[in-house]
Design a protein that fits this description.
By secondary structure, chain A is of the alpha+beta class. Chain A is built from ten helices and 22 strands. In chain B, helix 6 crosses helix 14, helix 10 runs antiparallel to helix 20 and helix 24 runs antiparallel to helix 25. The chains are: A alpha+beta, B mainly alpha. The complex binds adenosine-5'-diphosphate and magnesium ion. Chain A: Belongs to the ABC transporter superfamily.
């Protein structure tokens, strides 16, 4: 086990920068999710870490050992990095039995037969595949194949386990079971895990911290609740969780954590991004955005903010409405309500909380 | 303090050294290109040298003479026509066989594939001989039934279309084998997905299966075309009587003419054939590079598309084609080997095994030729597969400008007519510089020429299967700590084994009967089977030649049966005709 540090890593394919100046510090034993839309460079970043791609610039180190640094001409090959990888396509070898697939890392290290068999059995038992040891991987279902791939990582006691969208090929039910399996695995082994996904719910449910990527950049790296409550920029606010970002022009800053913004005819108390407070010029230049999550806004007939209901979904215990608001009716807010509402009905809204940040942050890059 | 900083400086240094040694194991692979270059490309370069040197000074005189001559361009056009048409025929026959056998539920697949391999094992000149004997007025078989054409009527095969037909039949197995190795790797899921999406019948074939298998289809087509382009046996046996010259026969006629300028002119003609072959292959690579249809997912479960009510009809057609292209010419060959004298009508009273007795027990050269050909072809097949696995890996996974060039150039020794390659080998190896030994007149020079000539046959199927493998399979092993050698041995070799075996078998079968290369390189005691048959036929002993040819076919069938019996112990898919 080891901590992982990436410093200003860049990787281009032709003119296209798939990974652009990415810096990451991952602590030993941490479960980090790499979240972003498809094509944003997640797989490339994972492959850089694993050593399948050589960075154009920047330094990667594992447990204090520099494994990639083009400037000093250092490039440790994947086979010397001792990282476990679970591929999206499983990458099991069809010509080997499940047991041999799992035991291959040990075979490569030249372990004795008895010790190998013992470890293979332990690993297969961990993923509940003990009875399948002698099968061919072609005879397994998707979830079972994924667990074999995980067991193969497990036996090599890697410094970290890298998983590239490991659940993307599985059905919803299996996905939940496997999520639990990954979490159990993480708790039991304490392994550092880097988990690539484009599914924010998956990332939020599993990770200690999430790095949100977009167009080769890391937009924000934080704990799931921080990402959700305090998104650093527009992309993160839109990508993580439901909600809406309203442009606001009138921000009166109370202190460096709170402020009051004018929404419609009412003043709303909200939290504000400390960086934004420091950069008052921007705050007053109409770059501010107010991020509202559904649980921040409730239907209240006395509410000064008015809007018309577009959609109403029963969630069990409460309703979620989509309410169109604003002078030009150009924003839709997801809102919770205790009662069903008619489509087109005019309702009042009460805003209890909000998050103010710089809408233009990161857009120039 | 100083110690610490020295230590810090020390660490990256260590790592650099390690990473360099890792990369140098990669570089080791590139050294493989050196013997490949020496054996396969240098002889051709040496021959090319003859074409641009006139009396020791560089000159384009030969180019001017040869390219300014109308007969050159006529022969080029004829070569393109016969090879092109022949390739289309190969593609139709071999392609439909491969698709039907690999993807549908036709019965007796093993028997079908087994029989389909046989035409390729019959040397081209024997194929031509048996077809001419079959269809001509003096046909032993047709005469036995009394249905031969009247004496003096023209032989229909003495024409461009006749040449193309036999080329097509001869090389259908090449398309078949390349495509089938490819089809084996088609994951069932991709076809099933298409069927679930509602694709059926023709749509399934045209929109899903054909595009997915197009790499194999294109590779097989290119190989069949290049083989047909350099074919001498068929174009000579059918073309010369019809006065229809192709580039290989033109070269042959030039060589027969002797004179001081022969080598130079042959060299220029050889370059012309080489250029056409390279164009064909370059086109093939262009087409392939546009389609990176790496087949994701599991391989291993074969497909069984149900043919339904049409199955008996399709099976009947398949067997009818086999009878036409295999059984009938083989019968003609057997009939000729049994007649008491060439041209005599065969019937149940006059058949005789005298020819077999003669070649088996009287002439010692037969056993010798069997032994020589066996050693040469097995040696070439084994050596080439061992070289091709790492070579194909370099070409597919570490492409560079150098490997791309080599990729094109290895095609040339195969595309050139065998005699041209033989001359090139003689020029280069008659006196090996530095070592000062001559390979001329030994089996060694034939062996080297075989390696040069058949490299590409072994290489293509393996390259094909490497380019189709999901790269994650190898990367997973790499992450497990397996170095290059281990990955080749544990992961890539077993996964490419079916293709490699198909390639080895192709090399073996082609080399076993090979004539045109060894025709110039043999010496007494070093004769190959092809040479033996040719010499017998050439000296008028057509019946003896047929007897040897029949025995060759029987021996090969026996060998194939041995493989069949051993197939249960071999890895899955190694024996190409096994399902
Ligand atoms: N080997 C490659 N050659 C060229 N472009 C590539 C290669 N690998 C990835 N890319 C490009 O880099 C971008 C990021 O790809 P990837 O890391 O796979 O995205 P993600 O995994 O986030 O979906 C994509 O635009 C992709 O087309
Ligand atoms: Mg990806």
């Amino acid at each position: 086990m080891a901590d992982i540090n990436l410093s200003r890593i860049t990787k281009s394919f032709g003119d296209y920068r798939a990974v652009n100046q990415v810096s990451l510090d991952i602590a030993d034993g941490e479960f980090v999710a790499l979240l972003g839309p498809s094509g944003c460079g997640k797989t490339t970043l994972l492959r850089l870490l694993a050593g399948f791609e050589e960075p154009d610039g920047g330094v990667i180190s594992l447990g204090g050992q520099v494994v990639a640094d083009p400037q000093s001409n250092i490039m440790v090959t994947p086979e010397m990095r001792n990282l476990g990888i679970v591929f999206q396509s499983y990458a099991l070898w069809p010509h080997m039995s499940v047991a041999r697939n799992v035991g291959y890392p040990l075979e490569v290290r030249g372990l004795g037969r008895a010790e190998r068999d013992h470890k293979i059995k332990a690993a297969l038992d961990t993923v509940a595949l003990g009875p399948y040891a002698d099968r061919s991987p072609t005879e397994l279902s998707g979830g079972q194949r994924q667990r074999v791939a995980l067991a193969r990582c497990l036996v090599m006691e890697p410094r970290a386990v890298l998983l590239d969208e490991p659940l993307a090929n599985l059905d919803v039910h299996l996905r939940e079971t496997m999520q639990q399996a990954f979490l159990d695995f993480h708790r039991r082994t304490g392994a550092t895990m880097i988990y690539v996904t484009h599914d924010q719910a998956e990332a939020m449910a599993m990770a200690d911290r999430i790095a949100v990527m977009d167009k080769g950049h890391i937009r924000q790296m934080a704990a799931p609740e921080t990402l959700y409550r305090e998104p650093a920029d527009l992309m993160v606010a839109g990508f993580v969780g439901a909600g809406a970002v309203l442009p606001i022009s009138n921000v009166s800053i109370t202190d460096d954590r709170t402020c009051s913004v004018r929404l419609g005819d009412t003043d709303v108390a909200a939290r504000i991004c400390p960086n934004f407070v420091r950069n008052r010029a921007a705050a007053h230049a109409g770059q501010a955005g107010l991020c509202l999550r559904p649980e921040d806004v409730w239907v209240d007939d006395a509410g000064a903010l008015r809007g018309s209901v577009e959609d109403c979904v029963y969630l069990g215990g409460r309703f979620r409405l989509s309410v169109r608001i604003g002078q030009d009716r150009d924003h839709v807010l997801p809102v919770y309500a205790n009662r069903r509402a008619r489509i087109g009905e005019n309702v009042g809204l009460k805003v209890s909380d909000g998050w103010v940040f710089d809408r233009m942050q990161g857009e120039a890059a | 303090m100083q110690a610490v900083s020295r230590l810090r400086g020390f660490w990256p240094g260590m790592i650099t050294a390690r990473s360099n040694s890792n990369r140098s194991s990669d570089r080791l692979l590139y050294w493989l290109l050196v013997p490949v270059f020496v054996v396969s490309i240098l002889p051709i370069v040496r021959l090319g040298f003859e074409g641009v040197m006139v009396g020791g000074v560089p000159s384009f005189d030969y180019f001017r003479d040869v390219l300014g001559n109308g007969s050159t361009w006529q022969a080029t056009a004829n070569s393109l026509y016969t090879a092109g048409l022949g390739t289309i025929i190969s593609l139709l026959i071999g392609g439909s066989f491969a698709f039907l056998v690999a993807l549908t539920d036709v019965r007796a697949k093993a028997a079908l594939v087994f029989c389909f391999m046989i035409p390729m094992m019959i040397p081209p000149q024997i194929t031509a001989l048996s077809w001419v004997q079959l269809t001509g007025p003096s046909s032993a078989l047709l005469n036995a039934f009394g249905i031969a054409p009247a004496m003096g009527s023209p032989q229909p095969l003495y024409s461009a279309e006749g040449i193309a037909l036999l080329l097509g039949i001869q090389h259908a197995s090449i398309v078949f084998l390349t495509l089938r190795a490819n089809l084996r790797m088609l994951p069932r899921e991709q076809i099933e997905a298409a069927r679930l999406a509602g694709a059926r019948g023709g749509r399934l074939w045209w929109q899903i299966i054909l595009p997915l298998t197009s790499p194999g289809l294109i590779a097989g087509t290119a190989m069949a075309f290049v083989t047909a382009l350099g074919n001498f046996g068929i174009t000579a046996m059918l073309g010369i009587p019809a006065n229809y010259a192709t580039l290989p026969t033109l070269i042959y006629q030039k060589l027969a003419g002797f004179g001081p300028s022969v080598l130079g002119e042959v060299s220029v003609l050889a370059m012309l054939i080489g250029a056409i072959a390279i164009c064909g292959v370059a086109l093939h690579h262009r087409l392939l590079s546009k389609r990176d249809y790496r087949l994701m997912g599991m391989v291993g479960r074969p497909l069984d598309i149900s043919l339904g009510a049409r199955r008996p009809l399709i099976e009947a057609i398949l067997w009818a084609v086999l009878v036409a292209i295999l059984v009938v010419p083989l019968l003609a060959l057997i009939a000729t080997s049994l007649v008491p004298a060439f041209g005599v009508k065969l019937n149940f009273d006059n058949y005789s095994f005298a020819a077999f007795r003669e070649v088996l027990f009287v002439q010692p050269s037969t056993a010798r030729a069997f032994q020589n050909s066996f050693m040469l072809s097995v040696g070439a097949a084994v050596t080439l597969v061992l070289v091709c696995l790492p070579l194909a890996y370099v070409m597919v996974r570490r492409p560079s400008r150098l490997t791309k060039l080599i990729n094109l150039l290895v095609e040339v020794p195969y595309a050139l007519p065998g005699v041209v390659l033989a001359i090139a080998c003689i020029l280069l190896f008659i006196r090996i510089p530095l070592l000062d030994v001559s390979l001329y007149g030994t089996l060694g020079i034939i062996f080297i020429a075989y390696l040069a000539r058949f490299l590409v046959i072994a290489l293509r199927p393996v390259m094909n299967s490497f380019s189709q493998l999901d790269p994650a399979l190898e990367e997973a092993a790499q992450a497990c700590g397996a170095g290059l050698g281990r990955r080749l041995r544990d992961i890539l070799l077993p996964l490419a084994a079916p293709s490699a075996a198909a390639g080895a078998l192709l090399v073996f079968l082609t080399a076993f009967n090979e004539l045109t290369v060894s025709a110039l390189l043999w010496a007494s005691g070093n004769e190959t089977l092809g040479v033996l048959i040719f010499n017998l036929d050439d000296s008028g002993d057509t019946v003896l030649a047929s007897a040897v040819a029949v025995m060759v076919v029987l021996v090969v069938i026996a060998l194939m049966s041995c493989f069949q019996l051993a197939s249960r112990r071999l890895p899955k898919g190694v024996v190409p005709w096994q399902t």
